[in-house]
Give the backbone structure.
Amino acid sequence: MKAIGYAAKGGVEVLTELELPMPEPGPRDLRVAVRAVSVNPVDVKRRRWEDPPESSHPSVLGYDAAGVVEAVGSGVTFFKPGDEVFYAGAMDRPGTNSEFHLVDERIVGPKPISLSFAEAAALPLTSITAWEMLFDRMKVPYGLLKPCGTLLVLNGAGGVGSMLIQLANRLTGLTVIATASRLESVEWVRKLGAKYVADHSKPIDEALHAIGFGGVDYIGAITTTPGSATSLASAMNPQGHITLIDNFDDSIAPFKPKSITVSWEMMFTRSLFQTADMDAQHRLLKLVSDLVDAGMLRTTLTHVGGCLTAANLGLAHERIETGRTIGKTVLEGFQQ
């Protein structure tokens, strides 16, 4: 089968087209014929900074995918061949930039009927991350729409931010504030449901004060900058909760005087450690799919970069490296 991988870390020039054996599904695996993939910052970081674990074998990157179940393992109960699915894959298995891909059914959801494969491929990783931040880490009540505080979404126009805004706006009673600085990103986050926008070109506490907020109850810290801990703590109300995604090299001591809860979100934890509740991501993606089909959530696809080729994948990586993308970039499957 065709795939795109890399043999050593570096620039986009390390991405190369491969011919690999057809993978055989394990007991809980689906073999998915990949129809579309999206590109995430984690793909770019791994390509730039991590050599493949086996120096003699190129690694295939990619997490988000939408496709059709082509074969199933002996223990599969959630899906059957012919089912259309979407998912975000696992960190410790080969990636989705391939014609066929193996994935554990417990982290797979049924593709929204109302979306194309490209539109659906934009959603899984960011939906899981945003959902777990909001409902698993911050413990915001799901579906309770009475006012319950303020949420600040850092990097609101990015993939995770775009989903976090939608989920908080549609499924909770939180007042959503998003950070953005360019006209097009401000328009995007408002369209998704942010009631207020803070200019993230300023220290975040100053940006909040500029729009009339002395502090917020929750922060979804999708991205942070070195030395920002003091500003973030200043931007929060006492006994608030901040959830981080990126590595946070600052001391968290500034959060202590206000008894602020600090938590981390990594959507690969359940699959990486085969947790007892691993199938929570199957249920989560099924809910997201239902909400999309009901018109409550929308795809965050903003750019289709053509079919899967090393050149097109490299261009998609370069788009992310600009730090100015809005929503998600998707590539469709290999040309037959």
Observations:
- The domain at 126-264 is CATH 3.40.50.720 (Rossmann fold).
